[in-house]
Structures are given as C-alpha cells and as structure tokens.
Amino acid sequence: MNKQHNCDVLIIGSGAAGLTLALHLAKNADVIVLSKGPINEGSTFYAQGGIAAVFDENDSVDAHVSDTLIAGAGLCEEQAVRFTAENAKGCLEWLINQGVNFDQEPNQVKNDNGDIKYHLTREGGHSHRRILHAADATGQAVQETLVSRIKQHNRIRIFERYNAIDLICDKNKDKACVGAYIWNRNSEKVESVHAKKTILATGGASKVYQYTSNPDVASGDGIAMAWRAGCRVANMEFNQFHPTCLYHAEAGTFLLTEALRGEGAILRRPNGSRFMPEFDERAELAPRDIVARAIDYEMKRLGADCMYLDISHKPADFIKQHFPTIYQKTQSLGIDMTKHPIPVVPAAHYTCGGVMINEQGKTDIDNLYAIGEVAYTGLHGANRMASNSLLECLVYARTAAQDITNTIDTKKPYLKLRQWDDSLVTDSDEEVVIQHNWHELRLFMWDYVGIVRTTKRLERAKRRVELLQKEIDEYYRNFRVTNNLLELRNLAQVAELIINSALERKESRGLHYTLDFPDMLTETSPTILKPR
After folding, report:
1. Quick check: 524 and 381 in contact, CB under 8 A?
2. Which helix (H) or strand (E) holds 465?
C-alpha cells in the first residue's frame, strides 16, 4: 500500500513560480511544494540577467508592451502582454519586500518620487533600460530569498527529491484533478498526494536537446503530465536557443547573460571581425532568435567550433563589478574576460510554448493550474524577450493565488485515492536501454529539430520519436519507475509535441526557422494541439 499525503494545494515545482504561489497562499491553505531535487536546483537559481519592469521615469508600460510584441514576431497575445507589463512593477515591489536585494545606483540615489533608484540594465529587444538585477546572479538571489521565506511558514511542507509521475483525475467528475502520484527518490517508493488544487510549476523542457543551458531537472514533466491528462498545449515549436553559452570542455552548461551584450559586449568571428551588423541593424541587441541563428550560420559557414563574445574594451573594474559570477567562472577556466573574448555557442534555453491557461492560470481541467515556463499564456509569442520569464512567474503566481483563495474549500474532506499498482513489474536489469534511448532522443532533436529545420528533418525526427515511445512505453509497463525512466518518458512525449507543432507551421517565424518555408505568412495564429 502506497503512502498518501493530503493538502489543500499541491505545487509541483520549486522555482520562482511555485514558491511565489506558495507564499501567497500560506495564510489560507495547507500547501505541499514538490521539488525534484534539492529545493535550490532549478532554472530560477541559474537565471543571471534579471527581471523586466518599468521603474524608469522615461520608460512606460506601453513601451514594454510594444517591445514584447515586436520580439514575439506577431504571435503574442496583446492582452496577456499588457496584463503582464501592467502588473510587473507591483510584483517586483512584492519581491523586494520579501528581501531580494536588487542592485541600486551608487550613493543611494533616489528618483523624483523619493524612491530608491535601482540600477537598470538593458537586454536584447528592449528599447529602454528596465531590467532589475542582482549583479549577474539574479535568479540565485530570488531563489534563496523565496526559500528562506518559505521555511518561515508552518503551513508549507517541502518535499525534496520527489518526482511527479502523473496527475490523478476524479473518475466521478469529468476532468477534475484531485492530486498526483509521486515517486520518492529517497525511499524509491511511489506515494500519492490528494489536493483540492494542483499546480504545475515544473519549468520547461530544454533537456530534450543535446546542448542546453538548463539544469538537469528541466525535462518537460509538467507539459507531458498535463497532455496525458487531457490538456491542450500551444506553440511547442518555439524553443528558444540562448545565443551565448560558454564553450569550454569543463564549463558544463554555463550561461553568459544577455546583459553582457546590453552593456556593450560584441560578437566576433575567430579572426576577430564583428558580424552581427551584417544580420540585423540592432546588431548584438537584436532578439535572441536572430542572434542565435547568426552564430549558428557563421559557425557552419566557417566550420568553426564557436564564436566569441568580447567585452574586454570595457574597464576591468566595470566588468568585475557588474559580472562577478561570470568573471570568476571564466577566470577558473583560464580565460580573463577583461583582456580576451569568451568562446560561445548557442544552447537550448527556454520553452516558449506549453500548457494552455487563462489569466488566472487555470488549465482545461478543473482544479488544475499551470504557471511559469510550463504554461502558455500568450506573453512570449514566437520568441521570448529577455527578462520577461521570471516576470511571468511572479505575475501569474499572484493571479493564480487569488483565484485559488477565492474558490478553494479548505473544509472539504480528503479523498482516499486509488492505489498505485506495481505488483506486476520488476526491477530493471537493462538500465543501458534507458541511457541509449536518452542519448538518441537528445541527439536527433538537436540535429533535426534545432535552430534551423527542414520538413525532411522533422519527418525523420517524427519517425524516430514514435519508435522510441513504443520502446519506452513497453519498458514503463514492465519495470519499476526510476528518475531516468520518468524523465525519458516525459521528454519523449514533449519531443513528439515539438515535432508535430513544427510540422504544422508552414512558415518561418521567430524561433521556428525552416529552410522549406523561409518566409513569414501575413496571417498566423498559435499552434494548438489537442489530445485525442
């Protein structure tokens, strides 16, 4: 008999979206936060750049909206963009009140209203400086602050090292979520959680690609679980590749923030020549899809392993003050970024599509919500603008919290859930099969469904993923679950959604670039997939 936990609200995911939601709900509900690894191990912790909001008197919400719409290449939903931009400052002020120390202008400079003046940086696609940041480790500052606040609440329980397996839907009520099956990685046992409201805050799916800036936990779990439960997904073809990941054998997946280019860093070929002005009049400040394609093009054209990002023309003290994390990392690898350019390559970074939700974060299934990178809100369109991602987490966590508080019945008795039955499965003695399938999946996704695509490549990937899914399904039915099996099952499902979405779009737009349809259509709409 598997162990059952009960709570008012189950939050699957422990990044900015999940923890913000938990804090908003802590006074009114008993909350469980599920973290796949240690609570700090997620994409939020590694976010370097910052969070976009209008704090400058010369900036405006209209300008933030306009910049986002332009970056989204005609596929943003303007209502979602305006809703997010209008709520940005309030959400940032809430975060500041929680204790996040964003960088301020020196000597306690204040604006005309007497408020503290924050140091604002600028990133690609933004027409103004509007990025609040904590040096080049904003995500770490946000994550550590939220975790410290979470631990002060006795109504929030943190389950570390737990994988969500699948959502549980009530058979007596059509499409109502009542919790989830979870795998305890510590005991290697399946448990269950009954919750009156369940929230997916699991992040994106960039681990589906061979090269990614994301931590290992970014395996598309929430998207796959929601799809299997019957939710629609949208715009899965738009996978953002960050243009500048550090290229070094010992660097792992170390990201070089776009704020480097915002502060004047230049992209160069191996011979030292600058190339971005040849691709876009905004040069290094063009949106990420354009910069990533330019780097990819130059690498293939020249047969080069990487391009180079150069900020060495700036004063050394300026570089060390604004980018201490990057400076220390590159120094540890023998690269002095105050004197030499940094080798860079693109890597899968952000999932712009996801589970379809409304303004309150509600999915197609009753009592099931999705917030953050796992969700499709309409904010990002065909390309996410820099530093709108953590913002989206904060805004939709707050609106979801309001809806949950208004609709939850905390006095309603808990249900006895169906038991997880693993009586007919055994421990696997063929773990090598998972490893082989894992590598095959990520490699063909990189080769065939990457920065530049063709119909032939996509069809080849579709055939491969269908075969893999059959093997994975057979394996899943016969052996006990493990972390690698659960992630592989979810990644294969997400890969299929990405491929099918990409085949649906017969144009090149934003992050979806295909040689067979290089032009942009005059009229277009989101790619929406519905479960059978």
Report:
1. no
2. helix 455-478
Q: To the nearest 10°, the Cα dihedral for 13, 14, 20, 22? A: 70
The encoded tokens of residue 46 equal 């590694």
Query: In whole angstroms, how far apart are CA 339 and each of 314, 317, 322?
Result: 9, 12, 16
Q: What is the rounded CA–CA span in Å between residue 262 and residue 282?
A: 11
**Domain architecture of the chain: domains with CATH:** 4-237+352-407 (3.50.50.60), 244-348 (3.90.700.10), 431-526 (1.20.58.100)
Quote the Cα angle for 141-359-501, to 5°.
90
**What's the CA gap between 50 and 525, in Å, rounded?**
30
Residue type, 527: T
Sheet holding 51-52, edge to edge: 51-52, 131-132, 120-121
What H or E segment, with its residue span, contains residue 240? strand 239-246
At residue 374, what is the residue type?
A: V
Residue with tokens 């969500």: 164
Which residue, 391, 311, 522, is CA-closest to 88?
Answer: 391
AA identity, residue 180: A
Show which residues are catalytic: 288
Tell me the pTM.
0.91
pLDDT values of the chain reduced to their tens digit, one per residue, 532 residues: 789 999 999 999 999 999 999 999 999 999 999 999 888 887 887 777 799 999 998 999 999 999 999 999 999 999 999 999 999 999 999 999 999 999 898 766 566 666 778 999 888 789 999 999 998 788 899 999 999 999 999 999 999 999 999 999 986 656 799 999 999 999 999 999 999 999 999 999 999 998 888 888 889 999 999 999 999 999 999 999 989 999 998 877 788 988 899 899 999 999 999 999 999 999 999 888 889 999 989 988 999 999 999 999 999 999 999 999 999 999 999 999 999 999 999 999 999 999 999 999 999 999 999 999 999 999 999 999 889 999 999 999 999 999 999 999 999 999 899 889 887 777 776 778 888 999 999 999 998 999 999 999 999 999 999 999 999 999 898 888 999 999 999 999 999 999 999 999 999 999 999 999 999 999 899 999 999 8
Alpha-carbon distance 169 to 228, whole Å? 11
Using alpha carbons, list the distances in angstroms from residue 262 to 53, 214, 243, 325.
16, 22, 13, 17
DSSP for 307-361 reads EEEE-TTS-HHHHHHH-HHHHHHHHHTT--TTTS-EEEEEEEEEE--EEE--TT-
Kindly write down the DSSP assignment for every residue of 137-197, as one continuous string: -HHHHHHHHHHHHHTT-TTEEEEESEEEEEEEE-TTSTTBEEEEEEEETTTTEEEEEEEEE
Query: What are 146's two structure tokens?
Result: 């939220």
Structure-token pair, residue 521: 């259509």
- Give the pairing of strands 177-184 and 162-169: antiparallel
User: Token pair for residue 30?
Assistant: 């008993």
